[in-house]
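Title: Prediction job returns without error message
Component: structure pipeline
Severity: low
Priority: P3
Assignee: unassigned

Description:
Job completed but the reporter wants confirmation the result is attached to the right record. Sequence as submitted:
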Amino acid sequence: MIKKQISAKSLPQRLLVYFSFIAIILGLSLYLITLSLMQWIEDEVNQHELEVSAPYAIESFRQGAKEPLKIGLNTTAYFSNEAIPQKYGSLDQYPLGFSSEINLPDTQQANNQEPISFFFYRGEFELNGKLTPLYLTMPTDNVELGKHEWLMINLLVLLLIILLFIAFGFAINRISKRLISPVSQLSQQLKQLKPFQHSEPFRVSPESASEFTELSDSLNYYRQQNEQLIKQEQAFARYASHELRTPLTVITGAAKLQEQDASPSFQIRQRERINRAALEMQYTIDALLNLVKHEKSIEQSSRTITLDEITQIINPLVLIAQKKQIEIEVTHTQMPHIHPSHTVLRMLLTNLITNAINASQSSKITVNITPSYIKVIDKGSGLLPNNQNTEGHQLGLLIVKSLCQRYQWQFDLSNTLPKGCTATLTLPALPMDKQK
């Protein structure tokens, strides 16, 4: 059996029904308790009035007062059975100290179904040296609320309960809607969200609970991260296509040239071209794979860059620079300790030096290496206004920024005077135990 799911829109109505049912039970319980308590208080007050009237009656009888003795408006005192009205019956059958309400049938009126109701207290006192009974009566008609009064009280109590029920239902409805409204808003915004299209950020009402605001902020953050990841992957795909196209062209061209000339020297040159292009592709693929991996931590061990490693990275670029009459110079004081592998370092420097070559004509490019930074300085045209760079330049810098972010390096690109551009890779200081 499939359980029907509850939607956020129907939840306030369901909550209202549940709480209304509870409110009805509580209201009826309160109604019954209130009426019972009022009746109990009424009886207790009247009985207490009889009991406190007993000393006054005793003192009055001792001073010679005749019976029946009226005390106040409602209480009557007796000390002999003969003086007690016949309608009250025999009161001497009740024990000494009895105090309660008595209901007796009216024997004088056969057709009257209403009982005779009165409060009665029995005691005794010494009168003329003899123990004498004391009877105090109080008709309930004179001291208790009548049917009309009880009807009005019932109506008022019921009206109050109904008003409280309406106010309670209104409050529950408002609170439940206020709690559910942010969920409905976020759900609706998620339904309207279209992939690969710009959309408004997730928002909830300012009156919502702080947890919903935090939830919308988290959704915005994760969506931004997801969109950035998608853009990054798309850029990687374009960069891979851009970077791999040249070595593939070289390999294809060299393979075709091998078919045209079978001389050993020519074949050797073409094989060297194929090997260099294949090696370039391998470096590019390794760097891209290293970048798109999402491990929680990068390799922990550090290593020291060597001059031979720098030379090996720069040598393939020297041939390209010579065609434009550009000299590549490496200056260094002390080689730094780094985390990135040779493949990653090669991609970083290759991109920066290639960009410098493309921006320069008949000048010199300096690669300055210190323990705290690596700078690539050219004397070319500098940064173009409004970021009007070529696609390859943009993609290369994107790869550089992504790699630097991964290894906690800082990348900065700035113009130098009188002309040219400086690309700076600022290296983080490594703990001494990792530099060994």
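Comment from assignee: result matches the submitted record. The CA atoms of residues 287 and 344 lie 5 Å apart.
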